[in-house]
């Protein structure tokens, strides 16, 4: 992990208060899909702590990287307001990413809600993938054009203004029923907690492997403050304890490890 100031190359404003923030490198070209960084503006940061963001995209030689955000509070608003040439402090890469499927296992299907889309761009650059993407309305469905052509998107909106009318779990169930998504394919999921909990429960019921990337509050981001503890089934990798630190044991967990 490194902490470094990076110059802002551009900020792409999107609908629904979303944005993509491009920063000048150097970045590691080895960043795994699902890893994250702690971000804060170089000056006028309005809160005490930096905020965790998934790496959205990293250029081949690590000369630039982007982060996909939604302005929902002081930190994400400050990052949305930076200008070209300003500096942003980035501490990362942190945490572990989504694992590659085992030999013979079907390709995972990715399920994203809102900014939960962020960890899946790097994944789709590595493998042809089906992504189910849900949001409240058409304004919330953004950034799909950043994805490579080998990505198959299915969109769901709560109000039916774009794509499937319903939530993204209902969309997933309907695609499985229609045979358009392999019912045995592991599910990789990122989005609001209630959505991930519902997806995890559905997968558990059908015996399908599910991994989730948690968006837990974080303070330090590298394992020293316990501010990101989540309840887990005690296991060796958690030192036998009934809780884990999301920043170092996650943010990606096997959904069966978690006590929702
Ligand atoms: C590993 C990881 C990766 C993330 N990646 C991204 C990303 O790529 N893009 C992105 O936009 N965000 C991402 N987040 C979420 C983002 O870091 C938080 O939402 C952050 O707290 C926003 O900061 P803020 O100062 O703008 O708003 P805050 O003041 O922190 O929060 C604003 C409002 O949102 C609510 N809120 C914030 N975080 C949570 C939460 N975890 N659970 C429930 N309610 C919450 C607060 O209660 C408050 O009402 C990620 C989080 C994690 C842990
Ligand atoms: S955020 Fe400090 S231990 Fe995880």
SSE blueprint:
Layout: E1 2-13, E2 18-24, E3 36-41, E4 51-54, E5 57-58, E6 64-70, H1 74-80, E7 87-94, E8 109-113, H2 120-126, E9 129-135, E10 151-157, E11 164-165, H3 168-177, E12 187-190, H4 193-206, E13 210-213, E14 229-231, E15 243-245, H5 246-249, E16 252-254
Parallel strand pairs: 8-9, 8-12, 9-10, 10-11, 12-13
Antiparallel strand pairs: 1-2, 1-7, 2-6, 3-4, 3-7, 5-6, 13-16, 14-15
Write up this protein.
By secondary structure, this protein is of the alpha/beta class. Helices cover 16% and strands 32% of the residues. It has helices at 74-80, 120-126, 168-177, 193-206, 246-249; strands spanning 2-13, 18-24, 36-41, 51-54, 57-58, 64-70, 87-94, 109-113, 129-135, 151-157, 164-165, 187-190, 210-213, 229-231, 243-245, 252-254. The strands form 3 sheets. A 7-stranded antiparallel beta sheet has the order 4-3-7-1-2-6-5. A 7-stranded mixed beta sheet has the order 11-10-9-8-12-13-16, sandwiched between helices. A two-stranded antiparallel sheet has the order 14-15. β5 and β6 (64-70) form a beta hairpin. The longest helix has 14 residues, at 193-206. It is globular. The structure holds flavin-adenine dinucleotide and FE2/S2 (inorganic) cluster. FE2/S2 (inorganic) cluster (FES) is lined by residues 218-221, 223-228, 245-247.
């Amino acid at each position: 992990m490194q902490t470094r100031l990076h110059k802002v190359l551009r900020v792409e404003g999107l609908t629904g208060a979303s944005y993509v923030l491009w920063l000048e490198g150097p970045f590691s070209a080895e960043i795994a899909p699902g890893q994250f960084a702690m971000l804060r503006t170089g000056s006028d940061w309005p809160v005490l702590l930096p905020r965790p963001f998934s790496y959205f995209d990293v250029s081949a030689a690590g000369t630039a990287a982007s982060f996909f955000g939604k302005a929902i509070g002081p930190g994400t608003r400050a990052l949305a307001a930076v200008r070209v040439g300003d500096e942003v402090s980035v501490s990362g890469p942190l945490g572990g990413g989504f694992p590659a499927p085992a030999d013979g296992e079907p390709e995972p299907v990715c399920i994203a809600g809102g900014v939960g889309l962020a960890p899946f761009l790097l994944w789709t650059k590595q493998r042809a993938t089906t992504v189910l993407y849900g949001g409240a309305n058409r304004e919330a469905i953004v950034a799909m054009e950043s994805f490579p052509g080998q990505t198959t998107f299915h969109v769901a909106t709560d109000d039916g203004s774009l794509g499937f009318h319903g939530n993204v779990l209902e969309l997933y169930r309907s695609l499985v029923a229609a045979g358009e998504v392999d019912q045995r394919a592991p599910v990789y999921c990122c989005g609001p907690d209630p959505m991930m909990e519902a997806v995890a429960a559905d997968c558990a019921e059908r015996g399908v492997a599910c991994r989730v990337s948690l968006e837990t509050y974080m303070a330090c981001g590298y394992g020293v403050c316990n501010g990101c503890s989540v309840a887990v089934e005690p296991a060796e990798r958690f030192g036998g304890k009934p809780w884990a630190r999301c920043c170092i044991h996650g943010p990606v967990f096997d959904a069966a490890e978690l006590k929702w």
